[in-house]
Amino acid sequence: MGLKESVQMTILDPVFDEVRKTETITYRARETVKVNWLTLLRLKSNIKIAATHSKDQKKRESVQEVLQSQPGSLSSAPAAQASSYTAPVQSTLEALSLDRALPKAYVNLVSEPPAQLPGHFTLYKAKPAAEMNGWIDEDDGRVAITSLRTSSGGDFNINISAVRHESVPLLRNWMIQVQVLANFINSLRSKELWYSRDWKEFTWYCRKRLEPPSKYEDYWKPGRADLVKGHICKSDTHVITNIKKQDVQERMEENNVMINPDGRKASQWAFVQYQSVSRFADEIRGKIHIEAIPPVTSLDPGEC
Questions:
Q1: Contact yes or no for 105/136 (Cβ under 8 A)
Q2: What is the pTM of this model?
Q3: Which of 90, 172, 193, 206 has the fewest Cβ atoms within 10 Å of its own Cβ atom?
Q4: What's 164's DSSP letter?
């Protein structure tokens, strides 16, 4: 029992090195199996719901045909023409709502990402679709921000982060793009921590889930910074936590920093206070774009 060779080769593909090394191979294998299983359960549920909807639709069509066949009934040609035009979009919206937990009342299908809004920042978060159940309230469209939360033990011991897309092989991924007012971001108490001796030390303490020295209190304590900006450590937690405290500066090097395809160091914004996270959820409401990314089972060398 195990992963088939094509799955193994995709996970180990050098194209995914920067992201894969943020966790162990064991984690990647376990996560692949878990999310694929959740996806199968979701598909099974969706098929049952779709079958019920299909039966109900056929019943309605049968009743309509009987009524239209009666003498003196009104012509339904114009309505039928309009229905045939809107049916593909409506069917797609219904499928999205079933398959990806996106309430139809708050979903629009678009052919390309929205333009950058004036005075806004654009942030990104990648999540497996199978883990996004009920993240948008069906009654009022509010975002359940906990669905985007990153648990403690991250680079900055964060509650929620908006980072560059992480390509996870063999999962049906969402690339979640949000736009947030620059005035809101500028109103937050923020700190920056880029690759440096302090970045190494603070990241090591956070990965170890230990309280950092007092000089870092502004980065994590309640009532201090709302937002921490800094580079992403690409090494998995086991690698970092196995480093002895006295060896942090020597063992943690620049090659521990994640690099973007354009050669620049990848960065993250971590919202670390409960109040600012709640405000963030309100600010991004109605300004979320999701790109559904299909599973990757093989890679064309020409795409590298």
A1: no
A2: 0.68
A3: 90
A4: S
